[in-house]
Amino acid sequence: MTSAPLAARLSVPSGPLFFPVTAYGPDGAVDLDVYRAHVRRGVEAGAAAVFACCGTGEFHALTPEEFQDCVRAAVEETAGRVPVIAGAGYGTALAVRYAKLAEEAGADGLLAMPPYLVVAGQEGLLRHYTELARATSLEVIVYQRDNAVFTPETVVSLARTEGIIGFKDGVGDLDLMQRIVSAVRAEVPDDFLYFNGLPTAELTGLAYRGIGITLYSSAVFCFAPELALAFHKALNTGDDATANRLLDGFYRPLVELRAQGRGYAVSLVKAGVRLRGLDVGEVRPPLHEPSDDHVKQLAQLIERGEALLQEDK
C-alpha cells in the first residue's frame, strides 16, 4: 500500500530522476569528494530525486561499507531538498542488510533490484520482496528486469504489500506493462507508482506515456542535464515536436552508440561525465571502458544535442 511521504514526493517530479555514477580515484577507491560534487551538481541542475548506488552507480561493484558511505554522502549533499533512494539487491538476507545500511545512512527509500543469479518463480519473487519490505521502514520500489519479471497478478500482490510503493520496468514489454497497470488499477484502491527503467529511457518515453507511465530514470542527466531537462519538459507538457527532435537528433543515435558495447549503459555514462569536466574515474571490472572512438562519438553527440537546444532559442 502506498504510504505518503516518498510516494507523494515522487508522483509529480519537478525534473528528471537522477542516477549518479559512483566516482573512483586513480587508485580505484571510491572518491567521496568527487561523488559529492556529482550529486550536488545534479540537485542544483534540477533533479527531482537522487537514486544512489543503483545500476548506473555500480551497486554490484561496491562493498557494503562503500555503499553506505555513498548513500550517506548523497543524503548529506541533498540536505532534504530531494529524496534519496538507495539500491538494494542480491539474495534476501543481503538485500535486507543493504536496506538497513541505507536506513542508517538516512535514505528515504529503496530501489529493490533483482535477486542475484537465480531465476525464481513468482511465489519466490513475491516472498523475496515482501520480506525485504517487512524488514525495513524504508519505502520500496521493485525493479523488474533480467531474472525478475512479474505477472500482473504478482504485481497486484506487491502493490498490496505494506511499504512497497512502486514498480520500475527495465524489460520494455509494453503489452505486459499495460496488463500490469490495468490489473493493479482494478484491484488496488491506492495510487501505485510506475517508472520506465530502460537504459536511455527517454527513447521510449512517448510510448510509456501512452499507458500512463511518465516517471523515468535519466542516465543522460548525469552528463547532459540541460538535454535531459529539455526532454523532460517536452514530454510532460505535450511538446512532442521538441521531444521528437531530441529523439531523432540525440537520443536515438545515443542508444545506437550504447549498443556497440556490453556495459555501455554504465561506462558510456561515466565517459560522458568525464567529458563534461568531472573526473569520476573509470568503471570497475567486470565492466570495461568504451573505446576512444566511441568516446569521440559521444562527444560529438553531446555537441549535436546542444545545437538542437539552440534551435529553440
From TrEMBL:
Enzyme Commission identifier(s): 4.2.1.41
Biological processes annotated in GO: D-glucarate catabolic process
Active site, renumbered: 143, 168
Domain of life: Bacteria
Reactions mediated catalytically: 5-dehydro-4-deoxy-D-glucarate + H(+) = 2,5-dioxopentanoate + CO2 + H2O
CDD domains: KDGDH
Enzyme's top EC category: lyase
Provenance organism: Streptomyces flaveus
Keywords on record: Lyase
Biochemical pathway: Carbohydrate acid metabolism; D-glucarate degradation; 2,5-dioxopentanoate from D-glucarate: step 2/2
Assigned protein family: Belongs to the DapA family.
Residues where pyruvate binds: 56
Alphabetical list of SUPFAM superfamilies matching this protein: Aldolase
Listed name of the protein: Probable 5-dehydro-4-deoxyglucarate dehydratase
Keyword Lyase part of the UniProt annotation: yes
Family matches, as SMART domains: DHDPS (SM01130)
A GO MF label: 4-hydroxy-tetrahydrodipicolinate synthase activity
